Amino acid sequence: MQVRSLFLLLALILVAATAEAGKSKKEKAKKDGSKCEDWRWGPCVPNSKDCGLGYREGTCRDESKKLKCKIPCNWKKKFGADCKYKFESWGGCSAQTGLKTRSGILKKALYNAQCEETVYVTKPCSSKIKSKAKAKKGKGKD
């Protein structure tokens, strides 16, 4: 019976200590938080080269902060990582240029970024000719 009581007491102490530790983390977060609501954020600046991990600086009145950010290395640098677009399907291949084009309409500008409303992207036409006959052939007859 004493072992059971001791075990129960130990469990209660452990639960109380865990709750207190969680409370301390929440209090720290509140102390670090700012009352300022009009933050202005700059672009994500990579630590090295032109993509990868980096930081963005923000200012609000006389306060300033740095946030970690990341620019994907395969991202279209023309648009910036803070401008998100909804793209339509690729158009047909132009015989004159050998390129196909599609447009994107601004969906969201993160951190108050200055983004173009509509952007156009081109890519080389595929040299491979995909035929529907090959796709149908793969299904086979039973």
From TrEMBL:
Domain (Pleiotrophin/Midkine N-terminal) ranges: 23-79
Primary residence: secreted
InterPro entries with a match to the protein in the record: Midkine_heparin-bd_GF (IPR000762), PTN/MK_C_dom (IPR020090), PTN/MK_C_dom_sf (IPR038130), PTN/MK_diS_sf (IPR020091), PTN/MK_N_dom (IPR020089), PTN/MK_N_dom_sf (IPR037122), PTN_MK_heparin-bd_GF_CS (IPR020092)
Cell location: Secreted
Record keywords, A-Z: Developmental protein, Disulfide bond, Growth factor, Heparin-binding, Mitogen, Secreted, Signal
Single GO term (MF): heparin binding
GO BP term, pick one: positive regulation of cell division
Domain Pleiotrophin/Midkine C-terminal, chain residue ranges per copy: 80-141
One Pfam match: PTN_MK_N
Signal peptide segment: 1-21
PANTHER family, per the entry: MIDKINE (PTHR13850:SF2), PLEIOTROPHIN FAMILY MEMBER (PTHR13850)
Function: Secreted protein that functions as cytokine and growth factor and mediates its signal through cell-surface proteoglycan and non-proteoglycan receptors. Regulates many processes like inflammatory response, cell proliferation, cell adhesion, cell growth, cell survival, tissue regeneration, cell differentiation and cell migration.
Official protein name in the record: Midkine
